[in-house]
């Protein structure tokens, strides 16, 4: 467990508690972490602040909805989810869309754990797991190596959820450029992610919430951009043709979730 961050287990528990996951994707570590941290995060809720579970559910449901729209429109037939952890999205989408190729990718320890869990569930050949170091620029763990076997004639969506806040700004910009280059040869390219911006967290309570979250994940939770406009400019500068950066709470999929107003959803496209 030492090489796997606690959020991978915690988020797995959140999805399970809200009927979004499969029992084989839930861990004892996640149940323990959720129980241990519940009193601390309850303080934010009692003070009228955001809740971690609400933020996590908001971003997850909105990314799901946007991906579903792209599949229905015929623009996406393949998905590469980077740093997928114990997310149940690949399981749910391949159950709903049998022809969809869904490739989950993560660092080797987490990828092995996910591969074992999916094997216990029983998955079709279209639902796969690959070892990936998102920051590697070459070698078998690089993005180029993992994406090499995908069909260039079919639209591809790349998803990151819960990853960007743990990376420094320069790494985020490099990652976005790599994603744009990877998507460029495909018939259609879509990038979906979550992101925090400074404009959405001006209050002291939100800063305290971010501090508590940083302590929980044992790493600083970084905010890289001041607002929506700066984020959009960075995405366009990375090579995307178009980009939107909207509050999760503005999408019907996150209606009523306390915490969804503290996270942005990135949608960037090529082709």
Content-based structural category: alpha/beta
Q: How large is the share of residues in beta strands?
A: 15-25%
Number of distinct helices: 9
Q: Secondary-structure element order, as H and E?
A: HHHEHEHEHEHEHHEE
Report how far apart the termini are. Answer: 40 Å
The overall strand count is 7
Largest sheet: 7 strands, mixed
Q: What spatial order of strands do you see in the largest sheet?
A: 3-2-1-4-5-7-6
Low-confidence segments, given as residue ranges, are none
The helical percent reads 40-55%
The overall pLDDT average reads 87
Shape, principal axes of CA atoms: globular
Radius of gyration, taken over Cα atoms and rounded to an integer in Å? 18 Å
Q: Any overview of this molecule?
A:
The protein starts with 5 loop residues before the first helix and ends with a strand. β2, α5 and β3 (127-131) form a beta-alpha-beta unit. The protein is globular and about 50 Å long. With 271 residues, it is of the alpha/beta class. The protein has a 7-stranded mixed sheet, with helices on both faces. The model has no long low-confidence stretch (mean pLDDT 87). The chain has helices at residues 6-17, 28-46, 52-72, 89-96, 108-121, 143-147, 169-183, 204-217, 228-237; strands spanning 78-82, 101-106, 127-131, 156-160, 189-195, 242-247, 264-270. It is built from 9 helices and 7 strands; from the N terminus they run αααβαβαβαβαβααββ.
Question: Would you spell out the secondary-structure blueprint of this structure?
Answer:
Elements: H1 6-17, H2 28-46, H3 52-72, E1 78-82, H4 89-96, E2 101-106, H5 108-121, E3 127-131, H6 143-147, E4 156-160, H7 169-183, E5 189-195, H8 204-217, H9 228-237, E6 242-247, E7 264-270
Parallel strand pairs: 1-2, 1-4, 2-3, 4-5
Antiparallel strand pairs: 5-7, 6-7
Helix pairs in contact: 1-2, 2-8
């Amino acid at each position: 467990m030492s090489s796997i961050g606690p959020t991978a287990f915690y988020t797995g528990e959140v999805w399970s508690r809200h009927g979004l996951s499969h029992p084989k994707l839930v861990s004892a570590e996640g149940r323990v972490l959720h129980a241990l941290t519940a009193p601390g995060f309850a303080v934010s809720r009692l003070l009228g602040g955001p809740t971690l579970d609400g933020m996590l559910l908001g971003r997850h449901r909105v990314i799901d909805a946007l991906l579903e729209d792209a599949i229905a429109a015929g623009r996406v037939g393949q998905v590469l989810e980077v740093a997928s952890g114990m997310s149940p999205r690949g399981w749910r989408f391949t159950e709903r869309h049998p022809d969809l190729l869904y490739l989950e990718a993560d660092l080797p320890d987490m990828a092995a754990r996910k591969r074992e869990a999916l094997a216990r569930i029983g998955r079709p050949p279209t639902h796969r797991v690959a070892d990936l170091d998102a920051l590697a620029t070459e070698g078998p763990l690089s993005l180029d190596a993992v994406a090499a076997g995908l069909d260039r004639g079919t639209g591809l969506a790349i998803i990151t959820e819960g990853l960007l806040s743990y990376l420094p700004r320069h790494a985020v910009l490099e990652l976005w450029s790599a994603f744009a280059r990877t998507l460029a040869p495909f018939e259609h390219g879509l990038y979906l992610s979550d992101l925090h911006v400074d404009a959405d967290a001006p209050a002291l309570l939100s800063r305290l919430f971010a501090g508590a979250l940083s302590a929980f994940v044992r790493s600083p939770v970084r905010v890289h951009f001041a607002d929506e406009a700066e984020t959009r400019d960075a995405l366009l500068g990375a090579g995307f043709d178009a980009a939107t950066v909207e509050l999760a709470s503005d999408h019907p999929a996150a209606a009523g979730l306390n915490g969804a107003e503290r996270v942005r959803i990135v949608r960037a496209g090529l082709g």
